[in-house]
Design goal:
single chain, about 290 residues, globular
């Protein structure tokens, strides 16, 4: 079997050190479209956006955790003992982050990555790669990347828990649209995801797309920023946890339609591509907050 679940789960965690400063934070935020008014993208810098772009006012959007260390957990996890898979069959199926406290603008931390679970979905396997990050003051965040591997199921393992977030039957409490700039994927990839699928038209065609697609984690970050800015008073420290399932693709130049429902202690979200008849982009999306 290309995946030996017992061996992968028993493997020693991979450990390393990561560091970041205000330039990494600002670059990440700019890659999400920060800096201009969402409702008037041609206008001068929105003063409310300075908390994402100006070092003297800077705070850190919690989804920065997905790029801190430039994807160490994902690539390290797929190279773990017991896992030998064809990367062409690999999809990023879902992402979750649990925040133990706000992420500092500048930091040095220890990162521990391991295979936390492997689920048997029949025709596919789902590998959960967990990263735990802590600095000198204690735990900062725990991040789980769910990796969907086609053709590797059927080994008799646990199917795993359901992560479905039931969508309320009522109309959304708020709907926002966020346009993706044509060059946004080129900027976002500077935070560490160098996959040419997001930059090279010829490579994208080989993968079956008419043009390069936006990173799923960019849509993930854009969505969290929208929830924070519109429903959490612009306060990133209120975010406790954030999870999603990647349900479809979106292209630079398109517009994300973000529907939000308020519930006690959380916001439920769906994201679709407004330009393509609301084709799904993110599903089962939940922002837990204080």
């Amino acid at each position: 079997m290309p995946i030996d679940a017992a061996k992968a789960l028993a493997a020693e965690p991979r450990k390393g050190n990561i560091a970041w400063d205000h330039k990494d934070i600002q670059l990440y935020h700019l890659g999400l479209g920060a800096g201009t008014s969402p409702n008037n993208p041609g206008a001068a810098t929105d003063p409310d956006e300075l908390r994402y772009t100006l070092e003297s006012k800077l705070h850190v959007l919690p989804s920065f955790a997905t790029v801190a260390g430039a994807g160490m957990a994902m690539m390290g996890g797929l190279a773990a003992p017991g896992i030998e898979v064809n990367l062409a069959h690999v999809l990023h199926g879902g992402q979750s982050i649990e925040l133990h406290r706000p992420i500092p603008v500048k930091g040095e931390a220890a990162s521990t990555a391991k295979v936390a679970a492997i689920y048997d979905k029949g025709k596919a396997a789902v590998i959960v790669l967990r990263t735990e990050v802590a600095d000198a003051d204690g735990p900062l965040w725990t991040s789980d990347a769910s990796i969907f591997v086609r053709g590797e199921g059927g080994f008799g393992g646990d199917r795993g828990p359901s992560v479905a977030a039931e969508q309320p039957e009522r109309a959304p409490d708020r709907v926002e649209e966020r346009r993706i700039r044509e060059e946004q994927a080129l900027l976002y990839r500077l935070s560490g995801d160098w996959n040419p699928l997001h930059a090279d038209p010829e490579f994208a065609k080989l993968a079956g797309f008419d043009q390069p697609i936006l990173h799923g984690l960019c849509s993930y970050g854009m969505t969290l920023k929208t929830v924070v800015d519109t429903l959490l008073d612009g306060d990133v420290s209120r975010v406790r946890a954030y999870r999603t399932r990647f349900a479809g693709i979106v292209f630079p130049g398109e517009t994300l339609r973000i529907r939000m429902w308020r519930e006690p202690g959380r916001v439920l979200v769906t994201v679709s591509a407004a330009d393509r008849d609301d084709a799904p982009v993110l599903a089962d999306t939940v922002v837990e907050h204080g």
